[in-house]
């Protein structure tokens, strides 16, 4: 055995310690986070993904040109600066210096153009193609990506912050097969279908999202997204420590809220809104007074606190809080307030009483929380002289049924509920521009206002959106109920700190640390 002097051993030990030291002390051990979800992604290609669960994953791998703060304001992302021409038909995006893809290649204006071109190519079959707006072409001028539109498109900047607008690196599509290579906080290690997705932190990451505090590499080193379809099994995995975080059911989230060993997160920035609507072409729901009375009977506080266990908020506007131009106080002046006595008086004026009720269908879909809300709603309506017979269908079947029912001008009238989400109030266009969502579109005046708000920006656009909301609410075509309005919940052990849910229920792990 070769002899090593004491002094050399000391030098070797000192060198070993030096290699394990950081500026703040001893180097931290690698940290892993395991998250259990009910379903797997259907694709890791953000320009082909069609489900929220898929886009939650792609949002970890890829970045967006722009970002959105919690007040709905738009900020730079992959761009250091951006501008819109005076006529609203040209956008210029200055791509940041030093942005690296996960494979070490550079993400520059040419890479951004290549991603944009692919997103718009009909051959890509992008399920979100229409949301990109009336783009006619793009070009590169040094660091600047220029995007030409055929007409102004007010929602464009907001859309570019969304998980639907991720920008991929050119190397993702080299060789024919798609490889998820982005610039985001995590990079793909492996994907075993219907089992798990393994991600690791991007050591070169620079964050510009105002919702995230950490300026660089995520604090956790590895992130595992594990598929556990059964609710009971996911909860068992959380309680046993097999996983650090899970998607809980509404009932399970309620139990965990009161347990100090766990944390529950609701999607406060989801951009989601729940509404009650009417078959307004069928008498007597063609009468705005009747629609207002029904809205005045709806106890939104009870729906939030009882049916959804306090995990959602009441809402006043036809679009969700925190989005561009949304003003909850202003909407409250236009819409109906909970007043069952006044509602009862209105119904009596038209000959409807609890003894001689107006008969309606309450057409709903089956989802946790919604079921109990509809039962409470049924009782609310009965108290003012409206007998609502609940008909429940699965979500897709319910909307398919409503598409035909909303065209009826006679028969039994119906009240129904729905939800919508997005990062911009432009989803009013999708809902109400004729023919509208499931044929609920209104009239030429609303069509014109919806088109006009797309042609505007800034304060002028906000004012036009307010005109639309005022019209919908003063005529009681829509009764805002709750936001977020979905069961997009997460739960973790108490050792998890810094987790956030962003817009469109994105999952933000950049700030996450694990208490030992």
Automatic annotation (TrEMBL):
UniProt entry tagged with the keyword Ribonucleoprotein: no
Principal subcellular localization: periplasm
Residues covered by the Solute-binding protein family domain: 74-432
Recorded GO MF terms: peptide transmembrane transporter activity
Gene Ontology process terms (BP): peptide transport
Secretion signal, residue range per the UniProt entry: 1-27
The keyword RNA-binding appears for this protein: no
Superkingdom of the source species: Bacteria
GO terms for cellular component: ATP-binding cassette (ABC) transporter complex; outer membrane-bounded periplasmic space
InterPro entries attached to this UniProt entry: Peptide/Ni-bd, SBP_5, SBP_5_dom
UniProt-annotated location(s): Periplasm
Keywords of this entry: Signal, Transport
Family membership noted in the UniProt record: Belongs to the bacterial solute-binding protein 5 family.
The protein's name in its UniProt record: ABC transporter substrate-binding protein
Organism: Rhizobium lusitanum
Lineage: Bacteria, Pseudomonadati, Pseudomonadota, Alphaproteobacteria, Hyphomicrobiales
């Amino acid at each position: 055995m070769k002899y090593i002097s004491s002094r050399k051993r000391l030098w070797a030990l000192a060198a070993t310690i030096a290699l394990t030291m950081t500026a703040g002390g001893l180097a931290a051990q690698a940290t892993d986070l395991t998250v259990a979800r009910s379903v797997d992604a259907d694709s890791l290609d953000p320009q082909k993904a069609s489900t929220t669960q898929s886009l939650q994953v792609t949002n970890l791998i890829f970045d967006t040109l722009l970002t959105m703060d919690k007040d709905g304001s738009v900020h730079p992302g992959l761009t250091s600066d951006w501008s819109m021409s005076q006529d609203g038909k040209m956008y210029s995006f200055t791509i940041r210096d030093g942005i690296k893809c996960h494979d070490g290649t550079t993400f520059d204006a040419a890479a951004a153009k290549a991603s944009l071109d692919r997103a718009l190519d009909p051959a890509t079959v992008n399920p979100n193609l229409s949301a990109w707006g009336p783009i006619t072409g793009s070009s590169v001028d040094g660091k600047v990506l220029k995007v030409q539109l055929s007409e102004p498109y007010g929602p464009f900047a907001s859309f570019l912050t969304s998980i639907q607008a991720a920008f991929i690196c050119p190397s993702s599509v080299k060789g024919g097969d798609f490889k998820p290579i982005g610039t985001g906080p995590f990079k793909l290690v492996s994907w075993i279908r219907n089992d798990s997705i393994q991600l690791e932190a991007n050591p070169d990451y620079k964050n510009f999202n105002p919702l995230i505090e950490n300026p660089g590499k995520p604090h956790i080193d590895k992130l595992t997204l594990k598929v556990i379809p059964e609710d009971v099994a996911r909860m068992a995995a959380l309680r046993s420590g097999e996983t650090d975080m899970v998607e809980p059911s509404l009932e399970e989230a309620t139990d965990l809220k009161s347990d100090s060993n766990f944390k529950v997160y609701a999607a406060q920035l989801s951009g989601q809104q729940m509404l009650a609507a009417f078959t307004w072409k069928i008498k007597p729901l063609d009468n705005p007074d009747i629609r207002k009375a029904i809205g005045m009977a709806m106890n939104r506080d009870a729906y939030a606190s009882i049916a959804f266990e306090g995990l959602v908020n009441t809402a006043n506007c036809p679009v969700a809080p925190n989005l561009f131009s949304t003003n909850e106080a202003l909407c409250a002046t236009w819409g109906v307030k909970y007043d069952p006595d006044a509602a009862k008086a209105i119904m009596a004026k038209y000959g409807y009483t609890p003894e001689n009720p107006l008969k309606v269908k309450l057409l709903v879909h089956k989802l946790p929380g919604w079921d109990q809300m509809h039962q409470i709603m049924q009782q609310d309506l009965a108290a003012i002289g409206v007998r609502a017979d609940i008909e429940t269908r699965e979500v897709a079947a319910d909307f398919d049924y409503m598409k035909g029912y909303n065209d009826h001008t006679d028969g039994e009238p119906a009240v129904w509920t729905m939800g919508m989400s997005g990062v911009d109030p432009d989803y009013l266009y999708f809902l109400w521009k004729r023919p509208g969502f499931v044929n609920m579109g209104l009239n030429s005046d609303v069509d014109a206002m919806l088109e006009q708000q797309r042609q505007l920006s800034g304060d002028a656009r906000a004012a036009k959106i307010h005109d639309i909301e005022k019209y919908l609410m003063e005529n009681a075509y829509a009764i805002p109920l709750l936001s977020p309005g979905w069961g997009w919940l997460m739960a973790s052990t108490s050792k998890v700190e810094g987790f956030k849910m962003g817009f469109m229920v994105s999952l933000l792990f950049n700030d996450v640390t694990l208490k030992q």
